[in-house]
C-alpha cells in the first residue's frame, strides 16, 4: 500500500474521530476498525457515482451498524456526494446533514435508515431481491441493464439480532448471488467481549443458510479484503458472507480493542495520540491533505466511467427494445392516480356479503392488471390473507421473474425486506400476515414510516372475529399501536367500497406506508358507503335532523352494527348520525371545515364502536361520550358468540347512546 493510500484509509478514521470528538457524542470504534474495508470497497469494487447518487444501476451499500455513521459521512464527503467539511463539523447537531444514525432522504447517498441493529441486513436482502426480479423483467442477452450488487456491513450485534437470521435464511434459499455481507468481527460489544453472550460459529451458521463464506484474517490488509470481495462476486449461485477480523478503535493506543472505543469520544489526548500513531500528517482538525483528496477523486472517476458506460448501454437498449423501455418507464413512474380513481372496474360494487380480506384479494388481482410492478407476498399465509396474484408465478432461485413471494414464517424480516424492495426503486410491494402478528412487523413498519416508504401491509383476521383460535390470535391493542405511529395510514374498511378506497390510497401514496386491517368474517355492502372514504371519515348514514341528537362513530365490521343501532334509536324518536371512520390518519389531514362538518362540535353526544381497545377514541367522543370497545383480551369461541359476549350488538350500542344523551341533560 502506498503512503497516499495509507493516508486515504486514515482520513476515514481521523475525520470520523474528529466529528465525534467535536460533537462530544458518537461511536468511533467501528469507523476506525472498518476504514480499510470502506476504502477498498467504495474505491475499487463498488460502482457508484457521487455526481448522480440515484443512478439506477449503482451498487447499493447499507451500513447496518448505523451507529458507525461517522464513517459513512466521511466516505460521502471524500467521494464527492456533496457533504462538506462544515457538514462533518455539525455531526449530531440539530438540522445537520450528519445525524447520529444515517437517515434516508435526509442525507444524499444514504441508502437506508438503519437504527435498530440487524435491520440493515434484512433491508439489504430486500434490495438484492429487487435487483434479481428487475433483472429477470428487463435484461436481454448482451443488454444487462440491471446488474449490480448489494453490499451490507454490520457487526456482532447485527448477527445476534434474530432479524438477520430470518433474512439470511431466506436469502440463502433464494440464492441471491448479488448479495455480499461483510461482517466486522471485532469481538467487542458494549458490555465487553462478545464471549459473554455470543460464542456460536457464525461461519457455520451462514454456510448452513446457503452462503459462500470467506475469511479475512487481517482487517488492515486492503488487498486481502479486495480479493475476498472479488471471490464473492465470482460465485454466481450463492450470496456471500465475508468475515473480516478487525480491531475496534484501531489506531488509538489507549482505546484499540476495548469496549470503551465503541460508544464514546476518544478524548482530545487520545485523538492526538491516534494521529501520531497513524502518522497522520495534519495537526489541524478536519484538515485533509490535498493528495488524499486527489486519490479519492481518481477513485470516484471509476464510478463516473461505469455510469457513462451504462448510459450508452441503456440508450442502445431503449433503441432496440422500445416496448421494454416503455415498461421501464412505467415501473419507475408514480401510479396514475386520476386514471385509477376513474377506473370503473376497480371501484365496481360487490353484490353480496364478503370478508374484507377476500375483497382485498380481488383488488390485488385487479391492481396486478393495472400496475406492472406489483411484487409482494405473505408470511406463509397467502391462502388466508388472499394475497396471491393469480396466474403469476412465485419468486424463487430458479424463477426470479415470479411476482409472488413466499416469505415463509418470518414476519420481522419480511417487513424489513419490503423496505429494501421499496428503497431499491422500480417496484411496488405489499406484505401480508394476521393482524395480531403486526407486533412482529412493528419495528420495521416504524422504519418505513420514518423513511417515508409507501409499503402496504395486508393485515387480516382483524378482531375477536377470529373466533376459535382464541386470545393469542385476536388483536385487541394493535390498532392503537399502529395508529400511534406518525406517518402511516391505518385503514379498517367496512365494506367493498371502503376496501377499494384503502387500496387506492395505498398504491397512490408516495411517502406514507399503509396498513389494511381486514376481516375474516363477511361484511355486507353498505348503501351509504362511497369514495368519500378517501377522506378518512364520512357520513355513511345520516339523521333526518340537520343537527343530530348524537353521533355514532365506527370502523370495519362495527359500522353495520352502528347503523342497526341507529334504526333502534330512530324508532324511539332519537335521531343519530353514523360516521364511518376507516382511517383516522387521513381524516386528521382534512380541513377543519370538513372535520367540523362530519363531527359538529355542538353535538357532544358521541359513541365510538370498535372491536379493539378504546385507546385513542377519547379524541373523538370527548369527556361526555362513551365507547363500545374491548377492555380485555378475547376468548376462544365462534365469532358470533364472542361479539355477543363482549357487547357488540345493536342493543348495547343503542343503550350506550341513550346513557350519553341522558348524561348531557
Please give a structural write-up.
This protein is an alpha/beta fold. The chain has 25 helices and 20 strands. The strands form five sheets. Strands 10-9-11-12-14-13 form a six-stranded parallel beta sheet, with helices on both faces. Strand 19 (606-613), helix 23 and strand 20 form a beta-alpha-beta unit. The chain is elongated. The mean pLDDT is 98.
Search tags:
single chain; 665 residues; alpha/beta; 6-stranded parallel sheet; 5-stranded parallel sheet; 20 strands; elongated
How would you summarize the topology of this molecule?
Blueprint: H1 3-23, H2 29-44, E1 60-63, H3 69-78, H4 85-89, H5 119-138, E2 150-155, H6 156-160, H7 162-174, E3 179-185, E4 188-189, E5 192-193, H8 202-209, E6 212-216, H9 222-234, E7 240-245, H10 268-277, H11 290-320, H12 322-331, H13 337-341, E8 354-355, H14 356-370, E9 376-378, H15 382-385, E10 404-406, H16 411-424, E11 430-434, H17 438-451, E12 456-460, H18 478-483, E13 489-491, H19 496-508, E14 514-517, E15 522-523, E16 538-541, E17 550-554, H20 558-571, E18 576-580, H21 584-589, H22 592-598, E19 606-613, H23 618-621, E20 626-630, H24 639-645, H25 650-664
Parallel strand pairs: 1-2, 2-3, 3-7, 6-7, 9-10, 9-11, 11-12, 12-14, 13-14, 17-18, 17-19, 19-20
Antiparallel strand pairs: 4-5, 8-15, 16-18
Helix pairs in contact: 1-2, 1-3, 1-10, 1-11, 2-3, 2-9, 5-7, 5-16, 7-16, 11-12, 14-19, 16-17, 20-25
